[in-house]
Amino acid sequence: MLFRKSVFASSIVAAAITGNSAVFADPTSQFSWMLPKTVFDVTATYTLKGCSVTSDGKSSLSMGVAAALTPNAVPDNFAGRLHYSTSDLVQNFKDNSISITTYSGTDILNSLGSTPNDETATVVGNILGGVTKIASIVLGAAAAKKDNALPCPFLVQTLVNEANDLPKQQANLLSLQQQLVAATDDTTQKNVSSEITAVQNLIAQYTKDITFQVTVTVDPGFSPAHVTDTTSFNNPYNRGGTPKPIPSNGLVSQITPTLPSSWLADPINNPSPLSSGTLDVFVYLDFANSNVKVDADPSGTFTPRGIQQYFIYREPTYIPVLVWWGDKNSNGNPLPPKQLMAPQLLPFGQFGQDRQLPFQAGTFESLKWSVTFSQFGEMTSATFTSQAIVTNATNLFQTEASIAGSIAAAVQTANSAETRATALQGQADLIYQQQRLAQCQASPPACTSK
After folding, report:
1. Using one digit for the tens of pLDDT, what is the confidence trace for 227-266?
2. If pLDDT is split at 50, 70 and 90, which confidence band does 385 have?
3. Any idea where the domains of the chain sit in the sequence?
4. CA 15, CA 9: separation in Å to the nearest integer?
């Protein structure tokens, strides 16, 4: 018999099971693994675009907001540690073998079987982002003397000047680059190049001064539903315990930042006049448009789930993630809501379907199967071989394997032609094996081994 546990960056589930000889194992021995769940970092970037005085003397602050998502797979502590005992493999006149591998550093299920192939799934931490949305925010009452009113007097005036000057410097840079292209002598080229470098440095300094970011890790049902400056944006949270229900609208995080104190001219006596919610970013899971239906709780909420006993893995559900500046369901108070990026389809094992794999063969039956998973729990390939003299082939899957093309393309695969060709070939092989499995299930006598 083969019982082993190794750790390497592969992602295969495989087994070769034959019913023919008597074997024995230590009944206290068992091997364990973790299932993945998906969390993601939301980074909101705020930029001061400028400030001016309206005709009635009020300050008009122009702010830009951009958002980005970075998905990550982490062990699902709520689902707990799954295990398989070697004593379950011991049966007279049968030889059952199994090996287990997990992803290095996480113990997330990597492979189960005796013939794992080295088909490493490299996870690239691509950032999925959107364009900057801009809004003008009219603040407070009119200045006492309209003609002498400073734009946004509560802000450090240097920042206001830099924000107002930035578009001019960007236009200046474009003009200098055009001059450099048209320059015909070395002296002019050197002078223009020097000016370009100076303007680029000035733009970089402006951008640094008038921009601030907040990053929040969203673990649906576990991370705080409302994150403010007072709760620390990078505050570690308890990923164990019992998850909290997610409301029916799918809101998983409301991010409420405030302007940095370094931006304020007098943060104590003249704090920011921005009304509550002006800079809030809202993050939703769009359950209504998931690839398969996610069952709601009796109250209409949604709660992350673990896994039922005797099941081995979960088939992830693909759910769009929405990021808005302002509550998308609001009436435009304090500002009309703006969607910051296109919906991002991510795989969520914690909202997926429980699945099984066969670990034991029938009498005089031989099964060989191999399944490949990504770190997010997506099934990316499957093979199946069956030889049966007396009994029909065991049903391998309760449902067809899901092809993780959309997320693999967005998050995991590189951009080289060779990599894309390999991925397409893998998908073609998976489709062929799925069709072959369906034929074997429909007509076992006509199923031949390969």
Report:
1. 886 665 555 555 567 899 999 999 999 999 988 989 998 8
2. low
3. 5-119+128-133+212-378, 155-211
4. 18
For the chain, the three-class secondary structure string (H helix, E strand, C coil) is: CCCCEEECCCCEEEEEEECCCCCCCCCCCEEEEECEEEEEEEEEEEEEEEEEECCCCCEEEEEEEEEEEEEEEEECCCCCEEEEEHHHHCCCCCEECCCEEECCCCCEEEEECCCCCCCCCCCCCCCEECCCEEEEEEECCCCCCHHHCCCCCCECHHHHHHHHHHHHHHHHHHHHHHHHHHCCCHHHHHHHHHHHHHHHHHHHHHHHHCEEEEEEEECCCCCCCEEEHHHCCCCCCCCCCCCCCECCCCEEEEEECCCCHHHECECCCECCCCCCCCCCEEEEECHHHCCCCCCCCCCCCECCCCCCCCCCEEEEEEEEEEEEECCCCCCCCCCCCEECCCCEEEEEEEEEEEECCCCCCCCCEEEEEEEEECCCCCEEEEEEEEEECCCCCCCCCCCCCCCCHHHHHHHHCCCCHHHHHHHHHHHHHHHHHHHHHHHHHHCHHHCCCC
**Confidence at 55, pLDDT banded by 50, 70, 90:** confident
Percent of the chain with pLDDT over 70: 60
* Distance between CA atoms of residues 396 and 384, nearest Å: 8
CB-side exposure of 391: number of CA atoms within 13 Å? 12
Q: What is the pTM of this model?
A: 0.74
pLDDT at 16: 47
> Based on C-alpha coordinates, what's the Rg of the chain?
29
Model confidence band, residue 276 (pLDDT cutoffs 50, 70, 90): confident
What is the predicted pLDDT for the residue at 123?
A: 38
